């Protein structure tokens, strides 16, 4: 989706509830079986220059995913850790407040949790590294960062090693430095939504499926200094958590997420004369995939309509929608984080 074509944000998740819950391990199972549940929590470290780094991992979606956040100075990061059962792979996807996009994977290495990651920046630069997390005791771990060379090998000498201490629940968060973040001349997701009049989507929305007798509750929240939008959705006992961000190239809007049935999601955005189009690909725990498109039409500032279409094997959208849902604005829950 081109920069000037930013339109609406994702909402309806009504047609994906039919697939059965399999017997595959969840992320929570893998973390506890591997003995890495000690990493869950809030942590803080201090660099040699005296700068604080905060780091948090917290369960969501019935322990099918982990939301991770971190901050150093005015640089903020947020992402998700998800498990792909049929590949037996733990992946992490995220974004930062300076327009960077992050991908990576976790593995075990002789009792240490290793996170290999790649950051793509808006200026085209790509940075790769591995961080080795080694437990010292219940409230302490060491994080050793290594550069990755062009062949994909980890350097023998680390960049740095930091010692993290578990943070008490009431400890104050690290504050961002005054002034703008890096790459301040770039366009952010927030800029685009404001420019094209789609900020109205931020908030909490609800629709009702009278046939099924269930409510669909969706909430959109700003994150990372308006460089991203968090999406939380509930339909009866089904839950979804995702993030929408502008790709570092600045010409595409992407979305990733997970649900409490072990599904992982990735999306792209485009538009046509029909309206804003969000094409989703949902990967089930058994490795099967389903692709669908949602088309969004604004009714007024307090309501919008979503049509959902199946996508055929050739990649073409079906001629007729399989459902249509109207969402109405609701007051945001002040207690929801």
Description:
The protein is 4% helix and 51% strand. It has 337 residues and is mostly beta strands. Strands 1-2-3-4-5-6-7-8-9-10 form a ten-stranded antiparallel barrel. The protein has a ten-stranded antiparallel beta barrel with strand order 11-12-13-14-15-16-17-18-19-20. The relative contact order is 0.18. The longest helix is centred in the first third of the chain and has 8 residues, at 27-34. It is globular and about 55 Å long. The protein has helices at 27-34, 189-195, and strands at residues 41-46, 52-60, 65-72, 75-84, 89-96, 101-109, 112-120, 126-137, 140-147, 160-166, 203-209, 214-223, 228-235, 238-246, 253-259, 264-272, 275-283, 289-300, 303-310, 323-330. Mean pLDDT is 84; it is low at 1-23, 171-184 and 333-337. The chain starts with 26 loop residues before the first helix and ends in a 7-residue tail after the last strand.
TL;DR of this structure?
This protein is mainly beta and 337 residues long.
- From the spread of the alpha carbons, the general shape counts as globular
Radius of gyration, taken over Cα atoms and rounded to an integer in Å: 20 Å
Number of strands: 20
Termini separation comes to: 29 Å
Q: How would you sum up the major sheet? A: 10 strands, antiparallel, barrel
| Class derived from helix and strand content | mainly beta
Strand percentage lies at over 45%
Give the overall average pLDDT. 84
Q: Strand order, biggest sheet?
A: 1-2-3-4-5-6-7-8-9-10
* Overall helicity: under 10%
DSSP summary: helix tally: 2
Q: Flag low-confidence runs.
A: 1-23, 171-184, 333-337
SSE string, helix = H, strand = E? HEEEEEEEEEEHEEEEEEEEEE
